[in-house]
Design a protein that fits this description.
The protein contains 12 helices and 26 strands. The chain is α/β, with parallel strands linked by helices. The protein is globular, with a radius of gyration of 21 Å.
């Protein structure tokens, strides 16, 4: 899934809206042919944004110029909706898919695949056998036109614009991405996948992922993201909302390999009903600054969530990430595993929140934060917050930080392995808890991304 990030793909645009104003917001809504209620929602979110302040914690955001970003970019020779066959995709964009090996993955084990360039979906396809199960897998803009009542019922209900400044901005200028709906009792054994590319110079991407699993449904979904290397700041303010019904199970995987100029400020949240299961496996690397704290709200009794992540911070990178869990139901359980790698002066911060309601009984939670520092200039911070208002809860937290074991390096080198390769192997072993949770092809690709990150480092 790797794409060279040295330069942007040469794509011409039909619609190109720069600058943050009501005119830009109206232009986005009109081009997407949205109903009036969505435009009203956008404009109200914009008012909320104008009254909001930057977060008081995390990376410095002062160099992010929100007034001059490109907020909507629609490629020429694109589509009013997304293409339903690969032959309809423009050749330059199709070539990127080819370099990502998406055609092979689609044929072998994906139930469906979607692709987005900047603000516009360029491809969306669900396998015929899944269509017969009444599964919906659509670009958000198409879903809003085809299933307006269903989208309105769930859209930004878990992440309202009043949540924080960048949620409000997202609500005002969002465009594209994916709507997934799995009906009651339907079990999706093959994963769906979406890939997006933030390609515009000094651009912003504000895609929205909305996933709904009815009771007793099961699904798996994988998202991959990339951005080219530019000399201007870019913004990625993604929003992901997941609704997991009773006795339903969702596995959500994402890997973001964005460029150093990108501010990666995402909000991801899931609501889990009785005996539902929400699993997250994700990786983040290369972004200049990241603020990301995926959240699971365990509303129903016996609901469960797992959050497993790996984050890499290198030179000039500040990765402020973590996870949040809210235990509201009885006998709920959750698990957080955070792996961070800091090198060449990079900064990694785990920032997590665990809340247990005073009415919740039999709650079990575990947090494990492991940090690997590859030099004396790098930084690792752990800032966990636990608010436990019930006396019937078992909470554990474990944190470790250290360097690579020199004895292991010596052993590997004694077996004929080079110094650099030995270190790379030990880094790969460190993140194995995350990698082994991914499908085989994606596990190999994440390892490849980590290897690329290690290349050129002065050990």
């Amino acid at each position: 899934m790797m794409v060279t990030l040295d330069e942007a793909d040469q794509v011409e645009y039909e619609v190109f809206l720069k600058g943050l104003s009501e005119e830009t917001i109206i232009g986005i809504s009109q081009d997407l042919q949205e109903p009036q209620w969505m435009l009203d929602f956008r404009l109200q979110a914009f008012k909320t944004f104008q009254k909001s302040e930057n977060p008081s914690y995390g990376p410095d955001l002062s160099s992010l110029d929100l007034e001059n970003l490109v907020y909507y970019a629609k490629p020429k020779k694109g589509f009013q909706g997304s293409a339903s066959s690969r032959e309809q995709v423009p050749e330059k964009i199709k070539n990127v898919f080819q370099r990502l090996h998406i055609p092979e993955a689609e044929q072998q084990f994906l139930a469906g695949v979607g692709g987005q360039y900047d603000s516009t979906a360029v491809y969306h396809k669900l396998k015929e056998k899944r269509i017969k199960s009444w599964i919906i897998f659509e670009d958000m803009a198409d879903a809003l036109r085809e299933y307006p009542d269903l989208v309105k019922k769930y859209f930004m209900q878990l992440v309202p614009p009043t949540d924080h400044k960048f949620a409000a901005l997202h609500g005002a200028v969002w465009s594209g991405w994916t709507f997934v709906y799995i009906p009651k009792g339907v079990k999706l054994s093959d994963p769906l996948q979406s890939y997006f590319r933030m390609n515009t110079y000094e651009g912003g991407q504000f895609e929205h992922t909305l996933i709904v699993l009815e009771d007793e449904a099961e699904g798996a979904y994988i998202e991959w993201c990339s951005a080219p290397k530019f000399d201007k700041r870019s913004l990625h303010a993604w929003c992901v909302e997941v609704f997991v019904g009773k006795n339903a199970k969702m596995r959500y995987s994402s890997v973001e390999n964005r460029s150093l100029n990108t501010f990666n400020l995402n909000t991801k949240r899931a609501l889990v009903e009785e005996r539902g299961v929400m699993e997250r496996i994700w990786g983040n690397l290369w972004s200049g600054a990241t603020m990301l704290y995926p959240c699971s709200i365990l509303k129903g009794d016996y609901a469960k969530s797992d959050n497993i992540s790996v984050v890499v911070a290198s030179k000039d990178q500040n990765q402020d990430v973590g996870a949040k869990v809210f235990h509201l139901g009885n006998y709920t359980s959750s698990n957080i595993v955070s792996k961070s790698i800091s090198k060449s002066g990079g900064i990694n911060t785990y920032r997590g929140t665990v809340y247990v309601s005073p009415k919740a009984k039999g709650v079990i939670h575990s947090t494990q934060c492991d940090a690997l520092l590859l030099d004396g200039d790098s930084v690792s911070n752990t800032i966990p917050t636990f608010k436990v208002e019930s006396s019937d809860a078992t909470i554990s937290h474990e944190a470790s930080a250290g360097n690579i074991d020199e004895k292991k390096i010596f052993y590997l080198m004694s077996r004929g392995i080079s110094f650099a390769k030995a270190k790379s192997l030990l880094v790969t072993g460190f993140i194995s808890d995350v990698v082994k949770q991914l499908p085989l092809e994606y596990a190999g690709e994440l390892n490849h991304l980590i290897d690329l990150e290690m290349e050129g480092n002065v050990w």
